[in-house]
Design a protein that fits this description.
The chain is of the alpha+beta class and about 375 residues long. The chain contains ten helices and seven strands.
């Protein structure tokens, strides 16, 4: 900046301007003209560079990046020109105010640049990872980066003005504590949301058990969104259930597709005590083998669980390749087993009660006989 002063002083002396006010006016006009020419040159250089990068596929740069660079350069030219003009008239307070405003203005291209970098990292990292948690992390960074940048810019601007920012920071801390007590449930959900992202008990697309489903509706569904405050789950009845993250962290999470989509399904079947158990087992296995989605390895297995009051309790254990067909498997197997048992004469018992009616005849008791007594006087 001092070199600019010396440079303009030499030019004004060469032109022959001696008056102080004319001298200052000449410097101001020349500075503005010089800045305008410099801005046009920078625009031209940037346009040429942008055109070359668009033609080259290896170093192709997004036009959004050039837009941010143009804005940053424009603010830079204004900063340099404004600082020179203010110092030319020797107004220290005005210079501080001007620098504070420029810091706040420069926060916008800074935020846009950070968002572009985050978007670039997300596109490159997302393709290299199998999980979808990276999308959530980058989404959180995108949402909070702007607030952090603007808050930092305001603090720096106040510091440039010569104000002591420590009371503001301390006041913000006290206000944060007060807000924390007032909105403890919301903050609890936010912290739980961050923990869900870190622990990753489930991811978007996983099928989990839903304990808060409406009565009589499906009790499991797919995770469609993991937010800061709540998680959205779409049940198999196409119902969206929004569960606060804090409630999720305090409950057992049953994830059917976390490790693999292959799960084992257990189906209980009862047969009468006088039925042929081995034949019943074979029939159940034959029914299980007819379903195309039931895995052949390991093969279906039937075991005797216990002896009930009126039935021998069997259990079919099969592996299915798609956990989302669990209820379809139970419905299919149950329906086919009933038909197979009826065809082969195997009884599926149900509680029975034998009632015996006893008829008793009630004899009328004999009336007591009356006797007469003769009385003599």
């Amino acid at each position: 900046m001092e070199n600019l002063f010396v440079f303009f002083d030499k030019i004004s002396l060469m032109v022959g301007i001696r008056s102080v006010y004319l001298h200052l006016l000449f410097k101001a006009l020349f500075a503005i003209l010089f800045s305008y020419i410099a801005w046009l040159i920078l625009l031209r250089i940037l346009a040429v560079f942008e055109k070359k990068t668009q033609k080259n596929d290896k170093i192709k740069i997004d036009t959004e990046i050039f837009r941010v660079i143009r804005r940053a350069l424009f603010y830079g030219v204004i900063l340099a020109t404004g600082t020179y003009l203010i110092r030319l008239f020797n107004t220290g307070l005005l210079e501080k105010i001007f620098h504070s405003l420029m810091i706040i203005l420069l926060a916008t291209p800074t935020k846009e640049g950070v968002l572009i970098v985050l978007d670039y990292l997300e596109k490159n990292i997302k393709d290299k990872t199998k999980t979808k948690v990276d999308d959530i992390i980058f989404d959180l960074l995108s949402k909070f980066s702007g607030a952090i940048i603007y808050a930092t810019a305001v603090i720096l601007a106040l510091d440039v003005l010569g104000m002591n920012v420590m009371p503001f920071i301390a006041g913000a801390g006290v206000a944060g504590i007060a807000i924390g007590f007032a909105a403890k449930d919301t903050l609890s959900n936010l912290i739980a949301g961050v923990l869900l992202i870190i622990d990753r008990p489930f991811e978007i697309g996983d099928r989990i058990e839903v304990w808060s489903a409406p009565a009589g509706s499906a009790t499991w569904g797919d995770v469609i969104d993991i937010g800061l405050r709540a998680t959205k789950i779409k049940t198999t009845d196409n119902i969206i259930i929004i569960i606060p993250n804090n409630e999720i962290m305090t409950r057992d999470i049953v994830n059917y597709t976390s490790i693999s989509t292959k799960i084992r399904v257990r189906i209980n079947v009862g047969v009468a005590y006088d039925a042929d158990i081995e034949k019943a087992k074979e029939l159940i296995k034959d029914v299980a083998g007819q379903a195309a989605w039931i895995s052949k390895e390991p093969p279906p297995k039937v075991v005797v669980r216990n002896f009930g009051e009126s039935s021998v309790d069997l259990q079919l254990r099969v592996w299915i390749d798609n956990a989302r067909k669990r209820m379809d498997t139970i419905s299919y197997i149950t329906d086919k087993i009933k038909a197979a048992f009826d065809k082969n004469g195997i009884e599926i018992p149900y509680p029975k009660r034998d009632i015996t009616l006893i008829r008793r005849s009630i004899a009328h008791p004999e009336k007591p006989k009356q006797t007469s007594v003769d009385k003599t006087s």
